[in-house]
Each structure stands twice: as C-alpha cells, then as structure tokens.
C-alpha cells in the first residue's frame, strides 16, 4: 500500500476498505499544501466538489478491472 501512497500524486490518496466491510476502495482528495493564494486553495476545493457532484448525478462508474491495470 505504501507504494501506491508514495506516487507523484500528493493531492490524492487511495484508502483501502475496512476489514469485513461491503464498501470498496475510496479515493481521498487533498488540496495542495503549497498555493500562492487562498483563492487558489478555494478554487481547487470548489473544483473537486463540482467534480464529485457530476460523478454522483450522472452515476459514473470509474471501476477498472484489475486485469487491465
């Protein structure tokens, strides 16, 4: 798991499912730690919120079979 977490994507983290749970893997978005202004931090957060709302409203499925990874 540490290999996945140590990728170049510092703003995204993969979270494995809890033991004996029916939920799957989760992706956690983190705003960039170094931004020039508060406005840029707010822009990143707003973009992620809008992106998640689009994914949920259109019920998009981004599952990839492990054989294709």
TrEMBL record:
Family: Belongs to the glutamate--cysteine ligase type 3 family.
Tagged with keyword Repeat: no
GO molecular function, a single term: ATP binding
Reactions the enzyme catalyzes: L-cysteine + L-glutamate + ATP = gamma-L-glutamyl-L-cysteine + ADP + phosphate + H(+)
GO annotation terms (biological process): glutathione biosynthetic process
EC number: 6.3.2.2
Alphabetical keyword list: ATP-binding, Glutathione biosynthesis, Ligase, Membrane, Nucleotide-binding, Transmembrane, Transmembrane helix
Pfam families documented for this protein: GCS
Record Gene3D superfamilies: 3.30.590.50
UniProt keyword tRNA processing, yes or no: no
GO cellular component: a single term: glutamate-cysteine ligase complex
UniProt protein name: Glutamate--cysteine ligase
Entry-linked PANTHER family: GLUTAMATE CYSTEINE LIGASE, GLUTAMATE--CYSTEINE LIGASE CATALYTIC SUBUNIT
InterPro entries: GCS, Gln_synth/guanido_kin_cat_dom
Pathway recorded for this protein: Sulfur metabolism; glutathione biosynthesis; glutathione from L-cysteine and L-glutamate: step 1/2
Organism: Rhamnusium bicolor
Membrane-spanning segments: 42-64
């Amino acid at each position: 798991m540490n290999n996945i977490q140590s990728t170049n994507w510092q703003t995204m983290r993969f979270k494995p499912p809890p033991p004996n749970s029916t939920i799957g893997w989760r992706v956690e978005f983190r705003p960039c730690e170094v931004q020039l202004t508060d406005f840029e931090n707010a822009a990143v957060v707003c973009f992620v919120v809008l992106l998640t709302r689009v994914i949920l409203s259109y019920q998009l499925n981004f599952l990839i079979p492990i054989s294709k990874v």
